[in-house]
Amino acid sequence: MSNTYKQAGVDKEEGYQTVSKIKDAVAATHNSNVLNGIGSFGAFYQLGGYKNPVLVSGTDGVGTKLRVALDSKVYDTVGIDCFAMCANDILCHGAKPLFFLDYLACGKLDSDIAAEIVGGIAQACKETGTALIGGETAEMPGMYQVGDYDVAGFCVGVVERDEIIDGSKIKAGQVIIALPSSGFHSNGFSLVRKVFPDFNEEFEGKPLFETLLVPTKLYQNDIFKIKDAGIEMSGIAHITGGGLIENVPRIINDGLTAVIEKTKINVPTVMQELAKRGGIAENEMFGTFNMGVGMVVIVDQTDAEKVLNIIDGSALIGEIQEGADKIILK
């Protein structure tokens, strides 16, 4: 009796079904710059309309937020997370996302689940004018348990060389403005799951998983609204794993300090509950979670009021001063 790939745990037909179920959603993200469709060995994207373009790339995954999604049988929002974690990173340099590729791995492929995950990615791509031009679905029995999935992505964007934002223009006297997060985004979930083991418990009138699975906010519209208003952003930081404490210093030059006032930050109630129930110290919270600040932008003081008027929920939370420490929370 001969063995087959299917008997070894890999069902190629389910893979074909996955492609069939996602092809329309993927095609809906394409524009005239995409020169081929699903099925080629590589995806073609034509770059034009720029004087001195610089490509900016980023890659990331969803992390253990997937455990909440899988256990709660909610699959589409983590696709948005996957895209947002990558796209928000390159946005920090002023880059507009051009195209995206995804990687989905599992123990046993279920085409319905895979299609929901990729559908979330496609939704986020469509909202931001980004083409979903390729991806890989890997069925790996023995590496993943049946029912487990992992998802990651890769984003490429473009910015004119003379419009790159890298923090080099940050100077003392400028201010730090927080753009609100939509929740935990996709960081710190190993600690979240330890403190909140029951995703179905009621929190503020609904199952907790609904709050935990709110997808990562896409900041492209906010950032380009600020740019289109003629406001120069000297620095942008995406507040991901490591919170404000680790991410803000990444854009601060030596000799400068980002002084942030914690009382000016609107911390989501679910994070307040997490800290209370888990006995988590404030410094640990600010060094792990975004604490309600999904992104910060640094602008001249004279532009602060304009930004606050443009972006709903934004708040002035600090300023740049001279000093040896890259960040001070007070």
From TrEMBL:
InterPro entries (UniProt xref): PurM-like_C_dom, PurM-like_C_sf, PurM-like_N, PurM-like_N_sf, PurM_cligase
GO cellular component, one term: cytosol
Pfam families: AIRS, AIRS_C
Top-level EC class as recorded in UniProt: ligase
Gene Ontology molecular function, alphabetical: ATP binding; phosphoribosylamine-glycine ligase activity; phosphoribosylformylglycinamidine cyclo-ligase activity
Gene Ontology biological process terms, A to Z: 'de novo' IMP biosynthetic process; adenine biosynthetic process
Pathway(s) the chain acts in: Purine metabolism; IMP biosynthesis via de novo pathway; 5-amino-1-(5-phospho-D-ribosyl)imidazole from N(2)-formyl-N(1)-(5-phospho-D-ribosyl)glycinamide: step 2/2
EC number: 6.3.3.1
Segments forming domain PurM-like N-terminal: 54-159
Transmembrane segments: none
Gene3D superfamilies xref list: PurM-like C-terminal domain (3.90.650.10), PurM-like, N-terminal domain (3.30.1330.10)
Catalytic activity: 2-formamido-N(1)-(5-O-phospho-beta-D-ribosyl)acetamidine + ATP = 5-amino-1-(5-phospho-beta-D-ribosyl)imidazole + ADP + phosphate + H(+)
Compartment(s) of residence: Cytoplasm
Residues covered by the PurM-like C-terminal domain: 171-325
Predominant subcellular localization, coarse grouping: cytoplasm
UniProt entry keywords in alphabetical sequence: ATP-binding, Cytoplasm, Ligase, Nucleotide-binding, Purine biosynthesis
Protein family: Belongs to the AIR synthase family.
Name this polypeptide is given: Phosphoribosylformylglycinamidine cyclo-ligase
Organism: Empedobacter falsenii
Gene coding for it: purM
